[in-house]
Amino acid sequence: MSAEFRKHMESMTATAGILKLLANPVRLCLLQKLLGEGELNVSQITSCMDVSQSAISQHLAKLRLNGIVEARKAGNQVFYACRRDDIRDIMAALFKEER
Question: CA dist 63 to 7, 30, 86, Å?
């Protein structure tokens, strides 16, 4: 296997992983809210898909662990943001009719 082919396979695997993470309505809602409104804490985004604050936190943790969102602590609150241009582009393509 050539180095070029190996690099291509790694890229496809990474992209598939991102799409797998995005294939959840709650996580899509969270990302749409973060990209539209900027940095928010969990209590500011509990309206996503009518799920509990605990469920929102679990989804945000999954996104954070996979590098999709960033977390910043301020006192006893954690603020989340998505600053990745590739995620912004994917979300814009997915929701172009809602713009």
Answer: 24, 10, 14
